Structure formats: structure tokens, C-alpha cells
Amino acid sequence: MLGKNLHKYWNRIINTMHEGLIVIAADGTIVMANQSFELLTGYTSSDIIGKSCTMLECDACELAIKSEKLQKWWCALFDPDHPGIKQCRCNLIKKDGTYMPVLKNATVLRDEQGNSLGAVETVTDISKLDRLDQEVAHLSRRLDSEDGFYGIIGTSPIMQQVFDIILKVGTSDAPVIIYGESGTGKELVANAIHLSGHRKDKAYVPFNCAALNESLLESELFGHAKGSFTGAYQHRIGRFESANGGDIFLDEIGDIPLSIQVKLLRILDSKEFERVGEQKRINTDVRIITATNKNLEQLVAQNKFREDLFFRINIIPIFLPPLRERVEDIPALVNTFIQRLMSKTGKNITGLSQETMESFMKYNWPGNIRELKGTLEYAFVIAEKGLIHIRHLPRKFTMAQSITGRADSFAVPQLMNDKSSQKDELINALRQTNGNQSQAAQILGINRVTVWNRIKKYNINLKKNIVV
Predict the structure, then answer these.
(1) Cys staple from 370: which of 54, 58, 183, 347, with CB 3.0 to 4.6 Å?
(2) Is residue 5 part of a domain?
(3) 198 shares a domain with 300
(4) Counted domains in the chain
(5) How far from chain centre, in Å, is Cα 423?
(6) Are 118 and 221 members of one domain?
(7) In 3D, which of 344, 325, 323 has the Cα closest to residue 334?
(8) Distance between CA atoms of 38 and 183, rounded to whole angstroms?
(9) Tens place of pLDDT per residue across the chain (468 aa)
């Protein structure tokens, strides 16, 4: 019965499909669209029927208007030499101007003589799959960080204060900025802010702003249209568009160029942005989390960072202490890393010797938790089993211990902001190391280039005033 009346129910059958479906005439005109297509794209049938399919701006369309090879065939799909079937992953532009990642299947309809009558295209929304891909990548980064407070190890009072702020921040949509030296775990704090907040079930998009040059950074953050610059072969969804509804984490915010800072300010003020190569305004609802190891106020004074942007991102600051200011957390960190390394390597290494643990507690850790973890990874390569001893540690670490042995009263210096204190501390460190700039840098918790620059800045004569 149904077979005889199939044509009668054809439209109803088409509209039961979960995939979007459109029928395109041989000249590219859209002649039909099902309800799923309307729901997916936001276009109604009256919006698109009679219009060219190019209005969807599919970035995988093989338009050949200027191609000599195809001549009269406006689209490669309709070329008689083409198999007439194409499956691809691409982006369509919805009615509201946002990109929708889809899996598209296109098939040419031909008559008995092989002439093209048109084409049928189905589109499947894969934006959830893209989001899941991001989540898998995010979770894989967290596999090594499942202990403590959302992966952050610390029982010291100063870290408990940080945890308390993180929990309070979770109920807010205000911008958060995380200050801390390199290696202190700023990305873990950003992740904890997301997981403890009301946006935890939405997207979390981390991005390092120092990783790319200006043009690539703009494309990564805001996306671009196909053909907007050399190499832009497809539409690209930017990080802000991907993070819509969730949180975006911009690490190394102090390194972004001024031109990008203007666009960030606009997003913070109006929640709007434009893709590279387009003038369409895209709305996005994201909470911005930033991080830096630089002094942004100093960059503002040097006209390297916009003052208005600084005030907009500095709403809720979180100050992450360096490891030397929470040494009571070192045993817990060591134990956690050793347990993970034992699982990875299969080595029966049970812990640190008493001498090694005491050295860990006295060491300055200029590279913070990242350096601590790297030191233990090195030791796991050298040691075979049992306890880790001083001889199993990197040469850099053992050299620092020999310096400590000559100067038992080594105190970790706290750098002051005023120039005279900074100069006095540098001279004191250089005297303790007999002019060795690398060892002085370790004492001060800075790098050797900074020591060299300050020697020049303060006109310190090593031969006359330092070396004995």
C-alpha cells in the first residue's frame, strides 16, 4: 500500500530525515530544502529556494567559473568526467553568520542519457564532534594532573588561599587573570577555574598567545574566510567562536601585539568580533581567563600594552606563588611525580634519600614546578631502583648544592622593586658565587641574561668589586 502511494508521502519522508537535505538544479539554483536543513542553518525554504547554492559559502565547493578546463561547467561536480559523487568535511555559513562544520555528501542526478539534472546534497552537523575532539585533547593534557585540587598539588596556606579564590571565581563571568612565574602551573589554575564554574559543561579552549606571529595569531583567535589571505584555502573557525558558551584561556597575554589587543577589547566590551577577511559581526558569549609571567603595569607604562585592556582583564587577579615561597608543598609534589613516573617507567624507585629531600627543600627552584618535575624525570633515567640520591640529579642541581655547601646561610632573596635594593642583591649574589653569573642567576631566581643586563645597567665592575 505504501509502495503505491510513496510519491504522495515523499515530502513527509524527506522531512523525517535527521540530516539536512537540499536539491540543487543544474545551474546551481536551490529548488528544495527539508526541515532539518532549515533547523541546522537557520534559513527557511523561502530564504533559499530560487537562490544560488553559493550563498552557503561552502569552503569545499569546487567552483570553476574561471577554469579553462571546465569551460561551461560552473561546478566540477557537473563535469561529465567527474564521478558525480563527492563526500567532504567542510564549513557552511548559517543565516546568523556563524560557521557550521558539516559532513557533506553530494550526488549528481542524471537522466537516461547521462545528462545532469541537478544534485542532491545532505549535510550532517559535526560541531559536537569537533567539540568532542577538543575535549579529548583537553582531557589528554589532564591525564597527568588528576591529583589534589583539580590537579593542583598543595596544602600550604598560600595555596589554600588560591583554591578559595578559584571556587569563588567559578560563580562569576568576570574576566580572570593569573599572575605567576614560568612553571608555576598557571594552565592548571585556568583549568580549575573552568571545571569549578557554571560553564564546566561547555567548551574550554586554551591557547598560548606567544606561539604565533601577528597574522597567524589573529586568524587563530578570530577565524578567517576562505581566500582572505595566501594559504587560506578554507574557512576557519577561530578560538573565540569555538569557545562560545564556555571559557577561553589566553596564556602569555602580555605577548600579544597592540593590533590584536584592540580586537580583544572589543570582545570584552561588546561580545562581538569579525573574522579575518569578513565584515560580518559574530556574537560570542565567553568568559576570558588570561595569564602572564610579565608585569603588565610596566608594559602599560612602556606603551606596549593598552591601559584600557589591562583594566578590563584585571578584574579578578589570582597571584600564583613560586615554589620557593611554598616549600612545604615540595614533599607532596615529589611523592605525586614519583608515583606517576613509577607507573610510566615500571621502575621500583621508592623516593628520595634524606639528603636529597633536604637539598630539594633548600634549592631555589627558579624553574618552579616544571623544573622539579624535570629533575625527577632525569633522576628516573639515571637511577635503577630504590632511593634517588644527589648523584642521580642533573649537574645544574648538584652545582647549586656545592655552592650552598660553601655558604650555609644562603637565604632565598626576595627581589625588591626599587633599583638600589635590586643592585645590592645582585652584588651580594655575585660575591657569594665569586662572580659566576650563572650561579648568581640561580640564587636570584632569574636567568643569566637578566644578570648580565643588570650588571651593565648598574655599571658593576666584576674584577674590581666582586671577584676575590
Answers:
(1) 183
(2) no
(3) yes
(4) 4
(5) 38
(6) no
(7) 323
(8) 49
(9) 445 555 666 777 788 888 888 888 888 889 888 988 998 889 998 898 988 888 887 866 644 434 444 445 667 777 776 676 777 788 888 888 887 888 888 888 887 777 778 888 888 888 777 666 655 555 544 444 446 788 899 989 999 999 999 999 988 899 999 999 999 999 999 999 999 999 998 999 999 998 788 878 988 898 877 766 666 667 778 899 889 999 999 999 999 999 999 999 999 999 998 888 777 888 899 999 999 999 999 999 999 999 999 999 999 999 999 999 999 999 999 999 999 999 888 898 989 999 899 899 989 999 999 999 999 999 999 998 899 999 999 887 766 655 554 333 333 333 334 445 677 778 877 877 778 787 777 677 676 667 777 887 778 877 666 654
Q: How far apart are CA 39 and CA 328, in angstroms?
A: 57
Is residue 137 located within the same domain as residue 271?
Answer: yes
In a domain, 414, yes or no: no
Specify the amino acid at residue 410: F
**Claim to verify: residue 245 and residue 351 sit in the same structural domain:** no
CATH number at residue 93: 3.30.450.20
How do beta strands 349-352 and 85-93 pair? Answer: unpaired
Count CA atoms within 13 Å of residue 271 on its CB side. 11
| 204 bridge partner residues | 247
- Cα–Cα distance for residue pair 153/145, rounded to 1 Å: 9
Q: Say how many residues make up the chain.
A: 468
Q: Which of 104, 125, 146 is the last residue of a domain?
A: 125
Is 4 contained in some domain?
no
Give me the residues paired with residue 124 across strands. Answer: 103
CB 437, CB 452: distance < 8 Å? yes
Q: Which residue is it, cell 584555502?
A: 233
Query: Which of 381, 406, 431 is the C-terminal boundary of a domain?
Result: 406
The sign of the CA dihedral 131, 136, 142, 147 is positive
We report the CATH number of the domain holding residue 460 as 1.10.10
Are 399 and 355 part of one and the same domain?
yes
